[in-house]
Amino acid sequence: MKTEKNINIKKDNLLQFAIILLIIVAVNIISSFVFHRFDLTAEKRFTLSKSTKNMLHNLDDIVYIKVYLDGKNLPADFAELSLKTRELLDEMRAYSDNLEYEFIDPSKNKSAQELNAIYGELYQKGLRPQAVQSMQADGVSTQYIVPGALISYQGLEVPVQLADADEGLITQRDAIIKYSVEKLEYNIGNAIRRVTHQQHAKVAFLKGHGELTNWEVLKAAMAIAQFYEVDSVILNGKISDIFELNIQDSATGDYTIKGNKYDLLIIAKPTIAFEEYDKFLLDQYVMRGGRILWYIDPVMAEIDSLYNYPEMPCLPRDLNLDDMFFRYGVRFNTNLLQDLNALAIPVNNGESIAGQNQYKLIPFYYFPIITPYAKHPIVNNLSLLRSEFISSVDTVGASNSDLKKTILLTTSQNTKVLNTPAIISLEVLKRRADLRQFSHQYLPVSVLVEGTFRSLYTDLQGEHVKDLDIVSTSSPTKMVFVADGDMIKNQFGSNNFVYPLGYDKHTNTAFANKNFLLNAVNYLCDDEDITQVRTKDFKMRLLNKDRILKQHTFWQTINMIVPLLIISLLGLVLLTTRKIKYNKQ
Questions:
Q1: Which residue, 318, 258, 330, is CA-closest to 292?
Q2: Does the CA dihedral 333-334-339-342 come out positive or negative?
Q3: 397, 476, 485, 487: least surrounded by Cβ within 10 Å?
């Protein structure tokens, strides 16, 4: 009898084992065809954005990715970056059968001569081998790794840097790796968009009215060129400058406007008044759905003048655009804002060492540091921005109009307003700020306006427009207005070295001016999903150091005893259950 019962028990156990084994095999087979990741993080850091998924779904041919960050001897932090890259590519491949990849160790089974040739070839293709030093038993060891990938599509190839140090502004290796992991989806996804030509918008910097030179907006143009086709256009009264034309009769020159030549115009710090006809062309560009990013200086004020002269007059700048801005729902105020949260500038302290003047950094209240407070995709999770002689901007017009106005950037809660005309000097740096004068709070300095705009030129007459079909009401469009023309300007160092956009060479601080520009451009080009990828909020869940110091012994004891107690309790329960079961039998 006992033998028969034992046989039945063994059969039941074998049956249970077989069922569990079949379930495990079935789950593995299904998981090989269906990919899903359970992302339990609050900010969904392991979930692909909607923009990336759409981009992957739209792949119509094979995109092949060669990742050169591989090998058994990778430093631990770079090995982590390699693992995260593989996990991201696995998830991307779940959304497209046209995505393939391989990981390559360029140093495997290679002689020193062969390795130098490989590194040279990769460098020519845009990947930068890095020398990484690590401590070994016999001293410091140096090895070269390539933290990058090449993405190929239909004969085209683009490089992507996996170790993204934000143009070299991050120097600590652990910070570089953390930042790079956070930006993997953005960097790889953006490279795929570029090589597959999924970004079709055209962006142009408008010239002809004393705007910043191409050299002064070089870094801005380079950043935008990662997404869109970038051009520079001089507006000098010709319709063909910003419109595509259909020539109906070459003999008479009759034409019709086919559409806008550019999806977005960037007007960066104009200093010369606009002719009325140029304003008319811009107005009709907007009426036909065009978007404009305005960087405007309403007041004439330059820091170079203060360095060269003891005083500087600050006068309103007449650009002949006030009536247009008012029709579009905004007003640039001809004032200068001072803020207690300000950028420091170098000031001669009157001392000299070895014939060299000595400088010290003092906060200059006319250079406010802008902290984004608004909840909008353009400024979500955005860091601080630097500004120079910034002014305030107001929203105007009826509240029930077809325009939606969103304040993007403001000053802090300690702001002072200086109305112009006025005279300023560096002497203000020698005086202690009177806090009672900094009584204004959160004055707007940047506004987004979107909706249906009304033309300023519904009744315009003249020879130039007699054959032009004037549009009086726009299709839905949008514009961003920034009351500081220098916010898009890059600084220069010795030998004409161009600093990244937003980098302040005096304080060696990187500000978020570039990300604000890219967010605004992406939003105006209807690519706000890309903005959400760039501004993903990766929260650092740090331990409470104070509690660690006070309670570390308690938690160490808990971590040692509790697992043992749980195991002992489970063993006791299992033993008791077996006794009860076999006693009944």
A1: 330
A2: positive
A3: 476
Residue 356 β-bridge partners: 353
Per-residue burial over 224-235, b = 16 or more CB atoms within 10 Å of its CB, e = otherwise = beebbebeeeeb
- Closest CA relative to residue 267, chosen from 545, 532, 488, 555: 488
Q: Where are the domains of the chain?
A: 50-194, 200-344+367-421+433-534
Q: How far apart are CA 405 and CA 396, in angstroms?
A: 9
| CB contact burial 526-565 (16+ within 10 A = b; e otherwise) | ebebbbbbbbbeeeeeeeeeeeeeeeeeeeeeeeeeeeee
Which tens digit of pLDDT belongs to each residue from 371-404?
999 989 899 888 899 999 999 999 998 666 789 9
* pLDDT tens digits, 260-316: 999 999 999 999 999 999 999 999 999 999 999 999 999 999 988 888 888 899 999
Q: Say how far apart CA 23 and CA 375 lie, in whole Å.
A: 47
Which tens digit of pLDDT belongs to each residue from 519-572?
Answer: 999 999 987 667 667 666 544 444 555 666 677 788 788 888 888 888 888 888
pLDDT at 1 over 60: no
The label of the residue with tokens 């640039």 reads: 332
Strands (E), 436-554: 444-451, 477-482, 503-504, 509-510
- CATH number belonging to domain 200-344+367-421+433-534: 3.40.50
Topology (CATH level 3) of domain 50-194: Glutaredoxin (3.40.30)
